[in-house]
Design a protein that fits this description.
single chain, mainly alpha, 50s Ribosomal Protein L17, Chain: A, 5 helices, rod-shaped
């Protein structure tokens, strides 16, 4: 029997339970708004309110105790520098718990825990997240479009390279033909006087033979 035992074990060992609550409370302090099961939400709400009361002292000893509970320096800094000054004139009731009904699947009762007075901060965070997601989608679409354009450009460049290569080869062939014709003409010009001398020599030789006869 659990008579006069107010500790909620949450079906965990002491080390596991402390780590779970430290993570939940740190998430609540950093995000000002979390969604979890009703049992964990109640325990985390109790622990968070005690930490906020402790943070109002603002002493080094209080910071060390808070770090011992939360185990995260960032959460402790937000707790002492941002949340505690906001609740300086408030004597309790720093959080709000709203039930959401049962979760699909296992039917566990769900709840939302949020810090009072930070509703606008939660809305701003959601707006930032929505804008970031929209930017990522736009960038993804642009990336796909740019890939298509790059593919088309590469294909055009390849076609242009092929056409330029064909044109260069045609020009080279024409130039080689021109050079071969020029060489043939030069050779024919050089060989023409030799052929004329040979014909003259032949004629002279025939004439000499006729005279001898």
């Amino acid at each position: 029997m659990r008579h006069r035992k107010t500790l909620k074990t949450l079906g965990r060992t002491s080390a596991h339970r402390k780590a779970t609550l430290a993570n939940i409370c740190s998430a609540l302090i950093e995000n000002k708004h979390i969604q979890t099961t009703d049992a964990k939400a109640r325990v985390a709400r109790r622990m968070t309110e005690r930490l906020i009361t402790l943070a109002k002292k603002g002493t080094l000893h209080a910071r060390r105790i808070a770090f011992q509970r939360l185990r995260q320096k960032g959460a402790v800094k937000i707790l002492f520098d941002e949340i505690a000054p906001r609740f300086a004139d408030r004597k309790g009731g720093y959080t709000r718990l709203v039930k959401l009904g049962r979760r699909f699947g296992d039917g566990a009762p769900m709840a939302v825990v949020e810090l009072i007075g930070f509703e606008m901060a939660v809305k701003k965070q959601k707006d930032k997240q929505a804008k970031a997601e929209a930017k990522e989608k736009k960038e993804a679409k642009k990336g796909k479009g740019s890939e298509k354009v790059q593919g088309e450009e590469h294909s055009k460049e390849a076609k242009g390279i092929k056409a330029s290569k064909d044109a260069k080869s045609e020009r080279a062939a024409k130039e080689s033909k021109k050079e071969s014709k020029k060489e043939d003409k030069k050779v024919s010009k050089k060989e023409a006087p030799k052929a004329a001398k040979e014909e003259k020599d032949k004629k002279k030789s025939t004439k000499d033979k006729i005279k001898e006869k």
